[in-house]
């Protein structure tokens, strides 16, 4: 297509461009502006300085990273071998995928709410563990770090798994055959051939998983101790905005959240570029 | 040697999946049983079965209103989302222009910035323009995660449809609107259906943004559930579970219907 016809097609982008600027770019810039001003509209860095000099606030960064990083690593770490294993399809694949997609569909709120009963002191899980004599008294799975981590992981794992499954099954099986014909064993084939080709998929699923884990809010509130050890950054922002009604300070926390997120993504993409040099390799079947 | 290793990996796979499925089933079953039970403090199964918590939940919330708002928001988001995303996906799939990569990453940005981060300024604007607490406000904010997702789902479907048929229609004198209506839309129906269904399932469970701006009569069921669970102690946990079961039934029905049309791998972000 060329000339006026192409310009005509580009007009179709207008609704989406208006949408993204009005509902995403503008609010984001508005947030940035608000975070750099006082309530009366004068310029200040005070909102950021306040965050970074208040131990209770700055702790939220480490608390959130302390949940998001290990859980995301574990979810993606489990998803890589499992999706590799299932890449050619296995028996019962449909039913397995179904169970994986259920928590994603239900969302954090229901999963967290259900965990309160299921993993509570008298819940089935503790009854089972005690019946098997694995533990003497009920293990505390709720209202602590474990509860939040399990809830985030239950959401994150299927997400990472299904994402990687779609990716790994798109890798040309001939590459594996070729590697085996050349005498490589399964490990070598995985590490030298498939893993490098999976790197872009791993990077993206890590990033998206991390985003979900990092903005963890319902799980931390319902399953953690939101006033103390599991006071995550999203909660700090929420409280500032809707409990203290300090929108300037709340915007600053939002901007800090977004900035940390983007830094992590930049690190992951740098790792990806270091690992994945084979953009020219025809890896797709 | 080779055989043994293969077996070990399959055992490992089975264990991980079994643990996972057991936890998911356990969570769902306890929620359902608890909502139907009375005085279930110990033991494997509740001793008395009752439906009183559903009556309690129904007196606590206007449940038809919650369901109505949930579906209204989800359906409106799908329809408006398609109207915005389809033309954009078409333009992005069919043309190459300067800055296309930048525009595409701009469209994807809402997916990599946490909703809580852009949600708070967005909520502030909604309060400023009196959209907060209104159904229309909830519909508008939830478009932010839905539209980028739709564009991503739709693009490959449009790319698959060759340009030949469009050119032929054009040569035969069809106007652009006619080509859209008579050629493109019928050919991309599977894509539209996929994007629509996936977004519908997604938007029923969208929480963060709705939570930030919805209030009173105009909240969705998932937000009402969170508020109930958060204010634990204000009502019996079984009543919270009763609301959870109602939400669960809605989400599961939409999931089961959608799985007739799409595969589970499409439910998540599609990697190219």
Layout of SSEs?
The complex is a heterodimer of chains A (285) and B (272).
Chain A (H helix, E strand, L loop, with lengths): L3 H8 L2 H22 L10 H8 L1 H31 L7 H26 L5 H8 L13 H24 L4 H9 L4 H29 L3 H6 L9 H10 L4 H29 L10
Chain B lengths: L1 H34 L1 E2 L9 E2 L2 H9 L2 H32 L5 H13 L2 H14 L6 H26 L3 H8 L4 H12 L1 H17 L2 H6 L7 H10 L6 H22 L14
Antiparallel strand pairs in B: 1-2
Helix pairs in contact in B: 1-12, 2-12, 3-6, 3-9, 4-6, 6-9, 7-8, 9-12, 11-12
From the helix content, strand content and strand pairing of chain A, which structural class follows? mainly alpha
What is the general shape of chain A?
Answer: globular
Radius of gyration of chain B: 23 Å
Rounded to the nearest angstrom, the distance between the terminal CA atoms of chain B is 36 Å
Helix run count of chain B: 12
CATH architecture of the largest domain in chain A: Orthogonal Bundle
Distance between the termini of chain A: 29 Å
How many structural domains in the coordinates of chain A?
A: 2
What is the C-level CATH assignment of the largest domain in chain A? Mainly Alpha
Q: What is CATH's topology name of the largest domain in chain A?
A: MetI-like fold
Largest sheet of chain A: none
Q: In angstroms, what is the radius of gyration of chain A?
A: 23 Å
Stretches of chain B where pLDDT is under 50 for at least 5 consecutive residues are: none
- Secondary structure: number of strands of chain A: 0
Instruction: Return the average pLDDT of chain B rounded to an integer.
Output: 86
Fraction of helical residues of chain B: over 70%
Report the strand count of chain B.
2
Run of helices and strands of chain B: HEEHHHHHHHHHHH
Structural class of chain B: mainly alpha
Your description of this structure?
The complex is a heterodimer of chains A (285) and B (272). By secondary structure, chain A is mainly α. Chain A is built from twelve helices and no strands. With 272 residues, chain B is mainly α. Chain B has two domains: 8-50, no CATH class; 60-267, MetI-like (MetI-like fold, Orthogonal Bundle). Chain B has a two-stranded antiparallel sheet. The chains are: A mainly alpha (285), B mainly alpha (272). Chains A and B meet through helix 1, helix 2, helix 4, helix 5 and helix 6 of A and helix 1, helix 3, helix 4, helix 5 and helix 6 of B.
């Amino acid at each position: 297509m060329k000339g006026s016809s192409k310009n005509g097609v580009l007009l179709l982008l207008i609704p989406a461009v208006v949408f993204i600027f009005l509902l995403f770019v503008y609010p984001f810039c508005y947030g940035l502006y608000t975070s750099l001003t006082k309530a009366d509209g004068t310029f200040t860095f005070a909102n950021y300085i306040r965050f970074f000099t208040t131990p209770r606030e700055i702790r939220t960064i480490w608390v959130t990273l302390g949940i998001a990083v290990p859980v995301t690593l574990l979810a993606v770490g489990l998803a890589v071998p499992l999706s590799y294993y299932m890449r050619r399809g296995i028996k019962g694949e449909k039913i397995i995928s179904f169970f994986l997609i259920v928590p994603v569909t239900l969302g954090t709120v229901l999963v967290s709410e259900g965990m309160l009963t299921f993993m509570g002191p008298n819940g089935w899980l503790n009854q089972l563990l005690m019946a098997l004599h694995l533990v003497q008294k009920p293990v505390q799975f709720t209202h602590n770090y474990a509860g939040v981590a399990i809830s985030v992981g239950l959401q994150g794992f299927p997400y990472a798994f299904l994402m990687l499954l779609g990716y790994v099954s798109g890798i040309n099986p001939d590459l594996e055959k070729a590697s085996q014909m050349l005498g490589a064993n399964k490990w070598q084939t995985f590490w030298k051939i498939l893993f490098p080709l999976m790197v872009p998929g791993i990077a993206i699923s890590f990033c998206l998983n991390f985003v979900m884990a990092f903005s963890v809010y319902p799980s931390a509130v319902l399953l953690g101790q939101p006033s103390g050890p599991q006071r995550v950054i999203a909660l700090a922002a929420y409280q500032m905005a809707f409990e203290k009604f300090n929108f300037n300070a709340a915007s600053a926390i939002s901007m800090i959240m977004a900035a940390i997120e983007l830094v992590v993504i930049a690190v992951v993409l740098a790792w990806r570029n270091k690992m994945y040099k084979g953009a020219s390799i025809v890896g797709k079947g | 040697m080779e055989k043994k290793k293969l077996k070990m990996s399959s055992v490992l796979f089975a264990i991980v999946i079994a643990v996972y499925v057991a936890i998911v089933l356990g969570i769902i079953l306890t929620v359902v049983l608890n909502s139907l039970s009375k005085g279930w403090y110990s033991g494997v199964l509740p001793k008395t079965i009752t439906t009183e918590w559903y009556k309690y939940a129904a007196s606590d919330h206007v449940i038809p209103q919650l369901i109505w708002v949930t579906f209204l928001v989800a359906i409106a988001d799908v329809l408006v989302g398609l109207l915005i995303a389809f033309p954009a996906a078409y333009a992005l799939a069919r043309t190459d222009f300067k800055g296309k990569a930048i525009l595409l990453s701009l469209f994807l940005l809402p997916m990599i910035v946490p909703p809580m981060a852009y949600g708070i300024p967005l909520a502030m604007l909604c309060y400023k323009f009196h959209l907060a607490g209104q159904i229309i406000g909830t519909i508008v904010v939830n478009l932010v995660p839905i539209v980028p997702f739709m564009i991503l789902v739709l693009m490959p479907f449009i790319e698959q449809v060759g340009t030949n048929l469009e050119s032929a229609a054009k040569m035969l004198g069809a106007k652009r609107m006619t080509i859209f209506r008579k050629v493109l839309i019928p050919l991309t129906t599977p894509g539209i259906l996929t994007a629509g269904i996936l977004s519908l399932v997604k938007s029923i469970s969208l929480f963060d943004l709705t939570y930030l701006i919805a209030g009173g009569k105009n909240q969705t069921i998932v937000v009402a559930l969170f508020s109930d669970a958060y204010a634990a102690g204000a009502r019996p946990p079984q009543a919270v579970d009763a609301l959870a079961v109602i939400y669960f039934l809605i989400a599961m029905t939409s999931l089961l219907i959608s799985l007739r049309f799409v595969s589970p791998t499409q439910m998540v972000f599609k990697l190219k």
